[in-house]
Design brief:
Strand order of the largest sheet: 8-9-10-7-11-12-13-14
Strand content: 25-35%
Number of helices: 10
Distance between the termini: 51 Å
Number of strands: 14
Helix content: 25-40%
Oligomer: single chain
Radius of gyration: 20 Å
Length: 323
């Protein structure tokens, strides 16, 4: 069978190591072209990564007959704009996370791809990582009994760019109202729905404690899944130390792990304590991209499509709205 020829719109940092190489290494996929508005940077990316073609115009790449599918890796405020063009071209699409700055924009994207009869994937790649599949397996096996509550604490120290006032789109409220919360918390909240199903209720509080940028830098929330499991979280980006701790408490034990750090997964019950190391693949999106190939070639359901990503956007909208 002919390979599915992918084009990337927005070949920035995330595509250098996390995603771009995965499209090149996945059987049945070919990275055929990249696009960046700066033609010099687009040409440089193509040369360094061995990509045969490059563009400086997104419309030209999206509508090119030599491109079968499009990966949108631009900042989230442009995802809707480019996704609607891909849907109009009648091609499959993968959009970087978060899916869009608002739930309403996500719904517009879903409607466009449903009308086009094409799949829309979202790069919540943690749903495909073996380390988190192990957590899901423990839950499915009942290793901690009935799950009761999940709590996540994420803390970061302010970076040099923040302290020196250098511009970053991730902390520009016009692009990412939740700042680093939008960029980082979305990964975990989307993953937790993979474990427990969709959220029924959510409330939150947010503020800008440091005044270093326009987006908020401190968020707290609580929620409840339709399954009855409850959840809580705090995300602070002006802390004196870094922290990334998730704990799932059950009726007969608990599971502890990190979202971003490759720390051991720890299962604790009254009868045992088990620590398991499962390294991430290199590139980290390899399993996510391979699962897209299985979806497109064999119809195997992908764990991260537009509907679940849109629900994560709904949850994050609700948390920030309460703030």
């Amino acid at each position: 069978m002919k390979p599915i020829r992918w084009g990337i719109v927005g070949c920035g940092a995330v595509t250098e190591k996390k995603s771009g190489p995965a499209y090149q290494r996945t059987p049945g996929f070919e990275l055929a072209a990249v696009m960046r508005r700066d033609a010099t940077l687009a040409a440089d990316y193509a040369r360094r990564h061995g990509v045969p073609r490059w563009f400086s115009d997104a419309d030209a790449l999206i509508n090119d007959a030599g491109i079968d599918a499009v990966y949108i890796a631009t900042p989230p405020d442009t995802h809707l704009h480019y996704a609607l063009k891909v849907a109009a071209a009648g091609k499959p699409c993968c959009v970087e996370k978060p899916m869009a700055p608002s739930h309403d924009q996500c719904l517009q994207m879903l409607a466009a791809f449903e009308a086009a009869g094409q799949p829309l994937f979202v790069a919540y790649y943690r749903r495909s990582l073996p380390r988190f599949e192990q957590v899901r397996q423990w839950l499915d096996e009942g290793r901690i009994g009935s799950p009761r509550h999940i709590h996540w604490q994420l803390a970061r120290t302010p970076g040099p760019d923040d302290l020196q006032g250098r511009y970053r789109w991730r902390t520009d409220a016009r692009i990412a109202p939740g700042g680093y919360f939008d960029d980082l918390a979305s990964h975990g909240l989307n993953l937790f729905a993979h474990f427990f199903g969709e959220v029924a209720q959510v409330a939150g509080s947010s503020s800008n404690q440091q005044g270093l940028y326009s987006a908020c830098d401190a968020v707290a929330a609580s929620w409840r899944y339709h399954s009855g499991v409850t959840g809580s979280g705090s995300w602070h980006f002006g802390s004196f130390e870094r922290a990334d701790r998730v704990e799932i408490t059950g009726s007969a034990g608990k599971i502890a792990f990190s979202i971003f750090e490759e720390q051991p997964l720890v299962l604790t019950t009254t009868e045992e304590q088990l620590a398991v190391d499962i390294p991430n693949p290199d590139p980290i999106q390899q399993f996510h991209v391979a699962n897209m190939a299985e979806h497109l070639r064999a119809g195997a359901p992908h764990p991260s499509c537009g509907a679940s990503a849109a629900r994560t956007a709904w949850m994050m909208d609700a948390i920030l709205r309460h703030g």
